[in-house]
Amino acid sequence: MSHLDVWLPAFNAEATLAAALRSIVRQTFRDWRLWLVDDGSTDRTAAIAGSFAARDPRIRMLRIRHGGIVAALRAAAAASDAPRFARMDADDMAHARRFEIQLASRADVVAARTRLLGAPGEGMRAYVRWQNSLLTHDDHIHNLFVESPLAHPTALMRRDTFERAGGYRAGGPEDYDLWMRLWESGARFEKIPRVLLGWRDSPGRLTRAHADYSEAAFRRVKLANLPRHPILARGPVTVWGAGPVGRGWIPVLRALGVEVEQVVDIDPRKIGRRVSGGVPVVAAEEVLARGRGPVLGAVGSRGARAIIRGRLLGAGFREGEDFLFLA
Q: In the prediction, which pLDDT does 179 show?
C-alpha cells in the first residue's frame, strides 16, 4: 500500500497525457501509486500509458469499456487502497511539489489554486480568479450554492471521508455533487494559497460539451441540497436582488416550500413595487437595520456580491447563518 493513490481517468488523451504523467513522475513526494484508467480510448492513450507504466512500477493501468468519467473514477476507487487519494486529469499538469505541499494539510479535502492552460475566455478567467480567492473552509462552504468552489483535479482527499459521503455518483456534475455531500457529512475544506496545477481549458472539454455539466444540471444539484441548509429553517427569507437572478429564484424557493417575505434592491425607482406575484421590494437599509437574517443574495452583476457581503457583515450579519449567496 502506498501513502497516496492518484486517480487519473483518460479518454482519447494522446495529445496531453505524456505531459500530465511526467508532472506526476517528477513529484518531490515519492510514496505514491497512480491508477490510470483508460476509459475505452480509440487513440494512442493506452500505448502512452503503457510506456510510462513499463518504466515506473508505481503507475498501474486499468482498461474499461467507455463509460465516462464516473465509471473510470469508480474503477480507480475499487483498485485503490491508500488512506488518501489525489485527483488528476489527463490534460492537466501538476506542480512538482503538489503532493508534498497538500499532504501537509490536515483537512479532509485539500485543493489548490490553478493557472489556466490553453486559450480560455474571459468568463473562465473570471471563474478561476473567483475560485482562487476561496481559501478557508468557510470560504468554500459559504460559496457552495454559487458555483463549484474548487477545481476537481486539484483535490486531495481522505478516503474514509470520501466513502462516508457516498463517493462519486453519475447523472450530473460528479464533483459538485460530491462537494455538497462532503459538506453535509461535516468534511473540512482547505485550498492551498499556491498555484499547484495547470488547468487546461478547451472548447471540447467535458464540462463544456456534456449535458451533465450544463447550467440546468448544476441547478438540480443546488435544489437537491438547498432545503437542507440550516438558514432556511429560520423563517421567511429576504432575497437581495430584484434583477433577473433574484426574481428567478423566487418561484424556485416557493416550490421548495420557502416563504419569500421581501426583495431588496438599491434602485430607488423599484422601492415600493411588487415583483413575482406580489413580493414587496424594499430598501437595503430596512433589512440592514434588523441585524439578522435570513437573507439570500442572488445577483448577477460582477462585483455586486462583494458589495452586498460587505454591507451585511458591516451590519452584524453572519455569513452562513444570517445570509447566503445563490447563483
A: 98
State the Cα angle at 62 between 35 and 169, rounded to 5°. 75
Instruction: For 70-126, write each residue's pLDDT tens digit.
Output: 999 999 999 999 999 999 999 999 999 999 999 999 999 999 999 999 988 999 999
Sequence ranges of the chain with CATH classification 3.40.50.720: 231-325
Residue showing cell 459538485: 176
Q: In what order do the strands lie in the sheet with 279-282?
A: 274-275, 279-282, 260-264, 237-240, 295-297, 323-325
**Residues of the chain falling short of pLDDT 70:** 203-209
Check: pTM over 0.85? Answer yes or no: yes
pLDDT at site 227: 95
What is d(CA 92, CA 154) in angstroms, rounded to the nearest whole number? Answer: 10
3-state SS, residue 174: helix
By DSSP bridging, strand 189-201 and strand 93-94 are antiparallel
User: Which of 107, 192, 113 has its CA nearest to residue 158?
Assistant: 107
- Give pLDDT, residue 202: 74
Query: What CATH architecture is 4-222?
Result: Alpha-Beta Complex (3.90)
Instruction: Specify the amino acid at residue 11.
Output: F
Q: How far apart are CA 263 and CA 277, in angstroms?
A: 12
pLDDT at 273: 93
Beta strands in 82-232 (DSSP E): 84-87, 93-94, 109-118, 156-158, 189-201
What pLDDT was estimated at residue 210?
79
> Contact 83/158 with Cβ under 8 angstroms?
yes
Q: Would you state the pLDDT for residue 300?
A: 87
| Joined grid coordinates for residue 72 | 473510470
Q: What is the pLDDT of residue 204?
A: 63
Top-level class of domain 231-325: alpha beta
Q: In what order do the strands lie in the sheet with 32-39?
A: 59-64, 32-39, 4-10, 84-87, 156-158, 109-118, 189-201, 93-94
Going from the C-alpha of 322 to that of each of 72, 233, 235, 271, 309, the distances in angstroms are 40, 11, 11, 23, 11
Contact 299, 241 (CB under 8 A): yes
Peptide bond into 173 cis (omega under 30): no
Cα–Cα distance, 151 to 200 (Å, whole number): 11
